Amino acid sequence: MSDLLHLHGALALECSATPSRAILAREEAAELADLVANDLARFLPRVEKLDLSIAAALFDPSELLRPGWPLHATLAELTARAPHSHDPRVFGFAAHEGAMPIGLQPDPNLRDGPLRLLPFVLQGPQDEVLGIGRAMEEVLLETGMANAATSLFAQTAFGASLEHARYLSLHDLAAMTAMQYEHAGIGPLWPLVEAALLAPESEQWLDAPPEPLARYAQGEVRIARLPFDAWLEAGFAPPGLSPEALSRTFRHFEARQRQFAALLGAHGIAANFVECSNGDDPRRRLSE
User: Fold this and answer.
1) Are residues 195 and 124 in the same domain?
2) Is the model's pTM score more than 0.85?
3) In this structure, how many other beta carbons lie within 10 angstroms of the beta carbon of residue 78?
């Protein structure tokens, strides 16, 4: 089994309201998995030669975009535990007594976003996986709309009001999330998230005043917490502001720090504040 490779993707549901359910039972999961397998066979030649595993639960994008891809790793692990077969297998991992398997339970605090995702893993021998992986990156984002039967089933099963249902690779999802962060005005944070996901041994700085000062390294992000005078001294305040405007701007700066820390936490990235005093070099403090 060690020579098997994995491909990571997701069925993305764009919803106009929060679905009434986040997880499916076993029979529903099996039906959904078969529908997804049929859909993928329309886009990806020879994909029927691979095992398919899907979590029959709705997740926030940040839950898929975490270091080590833990949801997909759990799916691959559960697939590896299943009885071996010479024929390709299709698994829909579902809830039992109201709970998903360990590692596949959606975070209830992240259930309200408009984009809900069902992660899937394709598994097979290298000679099959590599070609299908290239096809996933080339065609899914542009042509990977779910079949009407799949969309209708998902809409009914999850109690969702669907606008679109389509298939994405994880690279597609990361690119979409980066664009959404940019549109939402939080684009400066994305390089730190991207470093944690794709280059976990690297170092990445957010050093662009008036944004918070932060450094990613060794699996965590360190954020400089500055008192008002140190914030002024370090040059994070725009020039020429009145005292009242400076006070408002500093409060916004602190709120921005909390927002970034919360977003990093949603991505499973540790965010730790480093206390800086007047006279400190905050960049040096983050590097200690």
Assistant:
1) no
2) yes
3) 18
